[in-house]
Amino acid sequence: MSIRSQLLLAAGSVAAMLALAPAQAQETVKIGLILPMTGGQASTGKQIDNAVKLYMQQNGDTVAGKKIEVILKDDAAVPDNTKRLAQELIVNDKVNFIAGFGVTPAALAAAPLATQAKIPEIVMAAGTSIITERSPYIVRTSFTLAQSSTIIGDWAAKNGIKKVATLTSDYAPGNDALNFFKQNFTAGGGEIVEEVKVPLQNPDFAPFLQRMKDAKPDAVFVFVPAGQGGNFMKQYAERGLDKSGIKVIGPGDVMDDDLLNGMGDAALGTVTAHLYSAAHPSAANKEFVAAYKKAFGQRPGFMAVGGYDGIRLIYEALKKTGGKTDGDALIEAMKGAKWESPRGPISIDPETRDIVQNIYIRKVEKVDGELYNVEFATFEAVKDSGKTKK
Amino acid sequence: MTTLFTILFDGVAYGMLLFVLACGLAVTLGLMNFVNLAHGAFAMAGGYICAVLVNNQGWPFFSALPLAFVSAAAIGVALERTLYRHLYTRSHLDQVLFTIGLTFMSVAAVDYIMGSSRIFIKLPAALEGQFDFFGVGIGRYRLMIIVICGLLTVALQLILAKTRFGSRLRAAVDDPRAASGLGINVPQVFAFTFAFGCGLAGLGGALSAEILGLDPYFPLKFMIYFLIVVTVGGSSSITGPFLASLLLGIGDVAGKYYVPKMGPFVIYTIMIVILIWRPNGLFGRAAAR
């Protein structure tokens, strides 16, 4: 075959694809769901995937006359993969949404593609403030670390905690958590007596915990990636910090519902600020937890809720546009959307496209023989202070 | 002052743990001259077996520990007979490629079967917490690690130096041809040694779940630590890796306590300094085979 005829063939097939595309788009709306299904972040991916499936089971797979099709891709939380998969989904599969994104670098890697292709990027997990500023097509349904860290800082300063030692993992979310906590806690009159950043791949907390113990603070502020929280709590108890009257406070990631039960009684009494607890006392949540448990045999965590609300946001937006899949129209439809989520009332801030939600102060307690984060105070409609600062 | 002793104690416990995890590697690498990067996979196998027995089958922790050893050793024998045996005479590059592939397979398999989140082994209450010994905080679990690992080290040294098996092994290593000429069944000796090394790794894996955390990425995460122990200690004896483990354990814990900003780099600094001073490790032989 000559080069010319090859070129002709290629041109012909491109033309054929272009001709076919609109015909397909009329029948189905495609969502490219990019999640870490393997690797260290896999539990995030599994929860979101489960939640999306659950929502579609409960609400049917047709919205405004369109059939919804979800294409799941595994990026193993590696940003290079995310970018490649997002590109394939947009160019080959012609998806109308990209969604998911387990970690911040993954969400950022896909941002320029969303801008270029003018399709909405729904962030269901990653929690660094800057994400929604990277593209006008990004909308977030998870949380930002600033939301929970500032609130726990305020709460600690007002509730008799004067001296705090901090232990945070040395990476972007850890630094975010530390800075926002410090800012609000010291503004409220608190004092940071010891500040330790631990390496991300940290095998043993013992020396750092000994340092915490010797600093004799009222409480230790902790942020470590989900998964290391259990090790931290066990060693915290082993070293007798609980008996020295040093409390553990932090953003709620450490006390994820997913892992809480594995931590054992050492976790009892830990106070965290977060957007969701499986023990949230609302009818919507009870129904959600029961359905999730029945379908997947475990309790949902905050990542599952991010996915559940993420797919709901897509449904709501399609309803508003009457099934039109124009990216700009969909983003407009999402701005200001609000509903009662399992986590409580939420809305999408029309200016930042970031989520506005209640942040709860919770304490780990034993309920029916299982550990739960029991909410005892609520800060209503918290915006992302990472942006309101500007 | 008491803090210093607590740090020292934690460092020794950490070092002992590193030793049990890595000494199998020192044996295969140093004695059998085989580069086994999949060593961590056997440790992980032991850890998961212990976790399943204790958490799901309700075994007591102390009876699950020997079983972690035995089953990791059994897996070691099976793989040695079927796979490893064919690579003894191959180049080191082939061995590296083969074992790293095996490591990735083990990671994927455990991820698939057990899930990717970190798991814990339920400990008996007697092992939890810390007690005060003249003002020095002693963790019960860490004390147990020191006792078990200390006994193991003594036993290993005795077996290698005093028993007939030890002398056969040393003979087989020094000159396999002459050894088999004298009627020593060299492949059998190697298989047994390999299995024993794997068993130790399995035991180490079970013991380390509480302190290092156990997830499917264990073999990759700690490979570097095992290799540091073996390179620093030299791979021609048990004493070398033992002292290297202690040095690294104490260095790591003390570094993280006293200079937390520099913490993670301390053990690498120690390694670099020692290797510049003695390129064959603390107790390495001058001429590598």
What is the CATH topology assignment of chain B?
Answer: ABC transporter involved in vitamin B12 uptake, BtuC
Content of β-strand of chain B: under 5%
Biggest sheet of chain A, open or closed, and with what strands and sense? 9 strands, mixed
Class derived from helix and strand content of chain B? mainly alpha
Protein name (chain B): ABC transporter permease
Keywords (chain B): Amino-acid transport, Cell membrane, Membrane, Transmembrane, Transmembrane helix, Transport
GO cellular component, one term (chain B): plasma membrane
InterPro entries (chain B): ABC_transp_permease, BCAA_transport_permease
Describe the structure.
Chain A is α/β, with parallel strands linked by helices and 390 residues long. Chain A folds into 2 domains: 3-143 and 283-353, Rossmann fold; 146-274 and 359-388, Response regulator (Rossmann fold), CATH 3.40.50. Chain A has 13 helices and 15 strands. Chain A has helices at 3-27, 42-59, 79-91, 104-117, 145-158, 172-187, 206-215, 228-238, 257-260, 283-296, 302-321, 327-334, 385-388; strands at residues 28-35, 62-63, 66-74, 97-100, 121-123, 138-140, 163-169, 191-198, 219-223, 247-251, 271-274, 338-341, 344-348, 355-367, 370-382. In chain A, strands 7, 8, 9, 10, 11, 12, 13, 14 and 15 form a 9-stranded mixed β-sheet that branches. In chain A, strand 4, helix 4 (104-117) and strand 5 form a beta-alpha-beta unit. Chain A is globular. Chain B has 289 residues and is mostly helical. Chain B has one domain (2-277): ABC transporter involved in vitamin B12 uptake, BtuC (Orthogonal Bundle). Helices cover 72% and strands 3% of the residues of chain B. Chain B has helices at residues 2-31, 39-56, 61-82, 92-114, 140-162, 164-174, 176-181, 186-212, 218-233, 239-258, 266-277; strands spanning 130-133, 136-139. In chain B, a hairpin with a 2-residue loop joins strand 1 (130-133) and strand 2. The termini of chain B are far apart. The relative contact order of chain B is 0.20. The chains are: A alpha/beta (390), B mainly alpha (289). Chains A and B meet through strand 8, helix 7 and helix 8 of A and helix 1, helix 8, helix 9 and helix 10 of B.
